[in-house]
Design a protein that fits this description.
With 406 residues, the protein is an alpha/beta fold. The protein folds into 2 domains: 163 residues, Rossmann fold, CATH 3.40.50.1100; 197 residues, Rossmann fold, CATH 3.40.50. Helices cover 36% and strands 16% of the residues. It contains 14 helices and 15 strands. Strands 4-5-13-10-11-12 form a 6-stranded mixed sheet, sandwiched between helices. Strand 7, helix 6 and strand 8 form a beta-alpha-beta unit. Helix 4 packs parallel to helix 5, helix 5 packs parallel to helix 6 and helix 13 packs across helix 14. The protein is globular and about 70 Å long.
Length: 406
Amino acid sequence: MRFSYLSHLECPRDGRSYDAGVPQKVCGCGSPLLARYDLKALAEGVTRDQISAGPPSLWRYHPLLPVSAPEAVVTLGEGLTPIVGLPKYGATIGVPRLVVKDEGLLPTGSFKGRGAAVGVSRAQELGITAIAMPTNGNAGAAWATYAARAGMAALIVMPVDAPEITRKECVVTGAQLYLVDGLIGDAGRIVERAVAQDGWFPVATLKEPYRLEGKKTMGFEIAEQLGWRVPDVIVYPTGGGVGLIGIYKAVLELQELGWIGEKLPRMVAVQASGCAPIVRAFERGADHAEPWQDAATVAFGINVPSAIGDFLILDAVRSTRGCAVAVSDEAILAELAACARGEGVFFCPEGAATLAAVRQLRESGWLDGSEEVLVLNTGAGIKYPNTVTADPPLLTVDGNVQSTGH
């Protein structure tokens, strides 16, 4: 089989085609570009069984990925994260068929490693040697890591309030890291100046086409792990929205190949009430989301006031009869603790937002409790130590309480 069936890049807004054989950014109209594949030829040359017999990583889906040659792959073994049942916790909130796909087990501790692996691989294949990006933390850490693996230079700019561990990941892998006293949009403007002045290649969210292709492998894995079918509902924490857009893209590609049935999972975009531009646009029936003012949430990875792919997120939600919902920081932290106690699964705050959303949707009646609901935990909870307070008693060596509050 061919290693990749990549055909071209396409603008989802105006339909213009672009050459995938040279580095591309966004369409002339400002829209993100989407990778397209020769699915007819792929269906004739590749079977599901061949995919399942592939390597134990996301690269088993290489015919549906943009990297044209196996020697161009930059990998740390990413992919095939488990789907784990949450029956006890799910029963307490009235959704007994609740499961989680735990992306915290990826090499860099978050789902961002998928986009970085494919994005860096394709960038290197196209001759790019230096990348630059703004980040809320985990994406920068992942791209810095994979850039180091590829021998590529990386410039990362993140808000000063981003999780500290993500700073250290960037520094230890040799990236040029800068902090900004602001939000991710402020970091983005600094990166844009660096790109214009110093020739870095921008790899910000949806500003190049291939991060999305890595993220869509979550959708491929969900279908394959469930026996080439999809769950009733997929609930996703949404900032820039690449993961949600990617899962929807994956499902449509699998349908066109005839590898899954006609059923679409209802896609739910979850945001924090302190930064919910997509939810507001969904509720108003708008096609675009106005920037959110004074954005703030404990779920820092979804603290994105304005998303370039807003129309793609809204289309995925509406086309699948899904919805968009906002949850409070208090609910996020409460569900994070409840699931950890009940199931032993330590969600990151962004992932815990999906748990709060499922409870909210069940209480509202949008979920009736019979559905198979899959939530995404997008990162390891241990990367966010500030979400948990730990003050156990301090004992003397003979077992007596010396003091409390440590």
